[in-house]
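URGENT: need a sanity check before tomorrow's submission.

F., can you look over the ABC transporter ATP-binding protein record below? I want to be sure the sequence and structure line up before it goes out.
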Amino acid sequence: MDDNLILAVEGLKKSFGKFEALKDVNLTLHPGEVLGFIGPNGAGKSTTIRVILGLIKASGGSAKVFGQDAWHDSVAIHRDLAYVPGDVYLWPNLTGGQTIDLLLHMSGQQHTPVVDQLIDAFKLDTSKKNRTYSKGNRQKVALIAAFSTDVSLYIFDEPTSGLDPLNELIFQQRVKQLKDAGKSVLLSSHILSEVEKMCDTISIIREGKVIETGSLESMQHLTRNAVTVKTVKTMADLQQLAGVYQLQFKNDQQTAAEFSVDSDQIGTVMSTLAQKQILQIKTTPPTLEDLFLRYYHSDDTQKAGE
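Structure tokens as predicted:
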């Protein structure tokens, strides 16, 4: 195992009674890397994070943070870690400002001008009591405290739930600043566009197992490019080509079409199109959402066939 890894999770298992919440989870996070951890609700994202944080004990496998055991060395690990859950509970009688200062104090940090900049950026009224805050404002308190903390690892579990689009953008900008500063970030999210914009590596979890890990670029071979094209000659014979799906002609002459194509068949398809005298063409690489839906759609199709 690489000693420089910030996070190393191998073969992680967690059972609650007879229910296997985690069956085989493998994650690695390097210094200065943003790892996107995605999957539907109930797939095991939050359970994995709770094991990493040392809040629950694994049933099997290992979870190491900074080379230390997540369960046995959790106190030492937490000194260099900031965490924001998806639903933040705060002391009801403290104000937002008092809460931020208390969280900083508990982390051995000071209230600096950076804290005030974050409060201003997120437009949080720190004079109000926590009990009056909406879910979004409670998230802001936790995010401001986390971003104000100078640590090596930041763990965000659905951190932008309850935030409006402007605050989501501020969150994304702040994560980029952490990455630029060489910090490591584990981001669990179901907002695929958020993960796509920010993450270097993506791990997809399904039913307690990590089923795919890699950069979005490396995963794109698993899904299809969208093509919109206009040609001089008819494209009627495209229907016979391997790797072409969802072909729709936009005119009777069949010289305008939209279709998707497997990445490994693009060369063949382009050669065929070139013979038709291309007038206009646009290809769109697959998105994370395409990839994600393909995994879950193929799983549902399998189940339907069983």
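My own read: The radius of gyration is 23 Å. Residues 7-215 form a domain with the Rossmann fold fold (CATH 3.40.50.300). If you see anything odd, call me.
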